[in-house]
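User: Fold this; tokens only.

Assistant: Input:
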Amino acid sequence: MRILTFTTLFPNSLAPDFGVFLLQRVSHLAGRSGNDVEVVAPLPYAPGFLRGTSRGYISAVPKTERIAGLRVHHPRYPLLPGISMPAHGLLMYAGCLNLMRSLHQQQPFDCIDAHYVFPDGLAAVLLGKSLRLPVMLTARGSDIHTFPKFTTIRPQICWTLRNATRLAAVSPSLAQIMLELEPSIPRPEVIGNGVDTMRFYPEDRLLARAKIGVDPNIKLIVSVAALKHVKGIDLLVRAASLLKKSTPQCRLLFIGKGPDLSTLQRLASQLDCADTCKFVGPVANDKLRDFYNAADVTCLPSRNEGWPNVVLESLACGTPVVGTRVGAVPELLSDAGSGVLVNASAESIHQGLCEAVVREWNRDAIAARARSHSWDKVAERVEALLQHHLRPERAVLEKAVSV
């Protein structure tokens, strides 16, 4: 089966850790016998004179490159941040059509495997209609949580959901929101992410702490998340101020970057817990194992989630998780031996952390349960959906054209 993966959530040579979860899924799908996968990961156009700015790096990304053995194309499309948002999907479609048509003519695809409902999904469905290809579309988080709140975008999302050949979501809660947005669609399949157990596995805690320079005698809590409102980092900072009084031996490491960094640092100072909270900044994905293994517990205090990869990564290292009841987190922590579920409030998070840091956890059992979420199993499910639902649809489309 020849598959075209279409998404902006894919790594490139200058951002190798971006969308690493999709790289894992696609590479494992490509590794299954009989599959040929090519990737189109469009980027907004950035002129060369912007190099050195946050957006300007895009101009240096090659138009075509090899990543983990996959051929990846990066067509450009016009976009003015903020201003062009309502037309984002249409602009992406226009910027990718010629390349997609050329690739399809050279060696025809059987289907399009698209990720992120807007703008990527809208562009993918339009491309599918232009090339007469079936489209499987997977929702992943803010594309369903956030974008439908915009009045100009919600109708485009509903149209996309109605016109995709097959729908999937990374969590049951996202699938339910999709149904509420567009009740006419069949129930989306739920296919979560996997975990790379060659990268995330248990190691000696003291050795891990020595690697990252952490006192072996403290209670260490690690949070790996973007520093923005939806991730609830402010709630964890407020919980840290409560921990400083109830469990003063606790220290928190915040790993990630985002627009709220200065606000969160000020909040920690105002709450007199700046000495308890350390903002580490971003850490390469292949270095996160040391932090997970060093921690007594990790915490994901999100207000909304899809399928949070950091939960599985922590569990695969044998480290329990305190997580809020959002997205797929309840599913991932359904076994009480893997972590503690809490509400998205500082008080509830504080209570969960107090329980977790004093509890004796079976770290080997936690890691064993996480290994059941392998990328091979994810790829097997994706392949089955593509084979059973999209490939027959391609034959119907071809027959309609010939008639």
